[in-house]
């Protein structure tokens, strides 16, 4: 990590060139969209479908509609979806799917199902003629000069279709996180992007308030990090701000005003889509890096970690990203005024986020999510290998991380 320097000399600049890449991807939001999943899979050439879905979801009303839509298509079903996607599980599943002739993967569930789908597709593409799989060469890394290296998976990964049951929107990105030996590793290749994502807004896609509060904060973090990432540009900024506006309004409507209708769900999903589209170019920074380490080291759910850590990382990054963070705060204030008719009174961007989180019932301290103590030195060590730190607008020292985690454990006054 960077050596300590004076705070006002720490801001990193963006490139003057704007570049935006997006995969060929179909997105549908609405009631009944899940009923078309079988036709989409068939259109992608699918004849043997590898299904990833937790047992509760697969046996529930949404899973029933998926099964009905798949009709007579052959399927290989995996209901063992582990949090944080352990790499050995993805390798085993990749071999199982390859041996069964799976030609399309369908992930039904939250972020773990989506990440497992991408990782499994990568394993199948990287598998050698002898059946061996070397995934280590595919992980994103930080080069010696501070830039990020994203190795290409190679081959032709089987297409992925996702039916999300959470709000992060990460299924739209070309990235997947897997854990190996206590570390979170990232695959990032446009070829792994889902070919179709279907956001079902009917009552069959039950979105519990607690899941919405935390996974929507993950999507909010996508938008905020895209705004201050040194890899971002005017295009990703526009997507991020539009996504943040829809997310903030949708969360206030769904959680604070208790409007659980289809329109409120659609607004949340729309915000998650836009924020993830921004992230496809801008990438994640310090905030997601910390969340990855907390997940790998302490087993913290990714949504919970995102909900808690974001405002404290925003406090830290304000010194190098005051303008974009002020724009984020203005969007959140505007959404609160528009939806609830009552303004947020906090001044700084970090404080605005915490006030907003109190309104929607999202946790703001690590103690609230069952982590009253943290292996701080483990987090410090883990961050040294996180590529998100390289794109942060403010260089990060070990002591910065220690102060950041200490603030998040019990909060700030």
Describe the structure.
It holds the Pfam family ADH_Fe_C. Residues 25-199 form the Alcohol dehydrogenase iron-type/glycerol dehydrogenase GldA domain. Helices cover 48% and strands 12% of the residues. It has 413 residues and is of the alpha/beta class. Strands 1-10-7-4-2-3 form a six-stranded parallel β-sheet, sandwiched between helices. The protein has a two-stranded antiparallel ribbon with strand order 5-6. Helix 6 packs parallel to helix 10 and helix 7 (234-256) packs antiparallel against helix 8 (262-282). The protein is globular.
CATH superfamily of the largest domain: Dehydroquinate synthase-like - alpha domain
Number of helices: 14
CATH topology of the largest domain, which one?
Dehydroquinate synthase-like, alpha domain
Largest sheet data:
6 strands, parallel
What's the average pLDDT?
A: 91
- List the uncertain runs: 1-9
- Coarse shape: globular
CATH-derived architecture of the largest domain: Up-down Bundle
Q: How many β-strand stretches?
A: 10
CATH C-level label of the largest domain:
Mainly Alpha
Question: What is the string of SSEs from the N terminus onward?
Answer: EHEHHEHEHEEEEEEHHHHHHHHH
Task: Quote the distance from N terminus to C terminus.
Answer: 29 Å
Question: What is the radius of gyration?
Answer: 20 Å
| Fraction of residues in H or I helices | 40-55%
Any idea how many domains?
2
Structural class assignment? alpha/beta
InterPro entries: ADH_Fe/GldA (IPR001670), ADH_Fe_C (IPR056798), Alcohol_dehydrogenase_Fe (IPR039697)
Family: Belongs to the iron-containing alcohol dehydrogenase family.
GO molecular function: alcohol dehydrogenase (NAD+) activity; metal ion binding
Domain Alcohol dehydrogenase iron-type/glycerol dehydrogenase GldA: 25-199
């Amino acid at each position: 990590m960077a050596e300590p320097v004076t705070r006002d000399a720490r801001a990193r600049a963006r490139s003057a060139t704007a570049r935006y890449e997006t995969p060929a991807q179909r997105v549908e939001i609405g009631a009944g969209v899940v009923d078309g999943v079988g036709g989409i899979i068939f259109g992608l050439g699918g004849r043997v479908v590898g299904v990833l879905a937790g047992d509760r979801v697969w046996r529930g009303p949404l899973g029933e509609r998926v099964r009905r839509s798949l009709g007579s298509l052959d399927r290989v079903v995996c209901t063992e979806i582990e949090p944080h996607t352990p790499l050995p599980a993805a390798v085993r599943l990749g071999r199982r799917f390859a041996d069964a002739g799976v030609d399309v993967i369908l992930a039904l569930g939250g972020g773990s199902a989506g990440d497992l789908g991408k990782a499994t597709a990568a394993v199948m593409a990287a598998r050698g003629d002898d059946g061996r799989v070397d995934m280590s060469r595919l992980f994103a890394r930080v080069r010696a000069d501070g830039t990020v290296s994203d190795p290409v998976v190679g081959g032709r990964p089987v297409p992925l279709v996702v039916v999300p049951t959470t709000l992060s929107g990460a299924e739209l990105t070309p990235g997947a996180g897997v854990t190996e030996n206590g570390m979170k590793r990232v695959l990032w290749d446009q070829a792994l992007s889902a070919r179709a994502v279907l956001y079902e807004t009917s009552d069959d896609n039950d979105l519990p308030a607690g899941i919405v509060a935390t996974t929507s904060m993950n999507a909010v973090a996508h938008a905020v990090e895209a705004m201050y990432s040194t890899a971002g540009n005017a295009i990703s900024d526009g997507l991020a701000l539009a996504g943040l506006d829809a997310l903030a309004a949708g969360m206030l409507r769904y959680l604070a005003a208790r409007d659980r209708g289809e329109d409120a769900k659609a607004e949340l999903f729309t915000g998650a889509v836009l924020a993830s589209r921004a992230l496809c170019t801008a990438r994640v920074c310090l905030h997601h890096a910390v969340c990855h380490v907390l997940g790998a080291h302490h087993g913290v759910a990714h949504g919970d970690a995102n909900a808690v850590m974001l405002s404290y990382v925003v406090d830290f990054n304000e010194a190098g990203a005051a303008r974009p963070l002020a724009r984020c705060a203005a969007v959140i204030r505007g959404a609160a005024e528009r939806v609830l008719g009552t303004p947020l009174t906090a001044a700084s961007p970090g404080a605005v986020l915490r006030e907003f989180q109190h309104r929607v019932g999202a946790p703001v301290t690590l103690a609230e999510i069952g982590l009253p103590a943290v292996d701080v030195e483990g987090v410090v060590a883990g961050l040294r290998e996180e590529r998100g730190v390289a794109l942060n607008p403010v260089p990060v020292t070990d002591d910065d991380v220690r102060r950041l985690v200490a603030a998040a454990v019990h909060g700030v006054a």
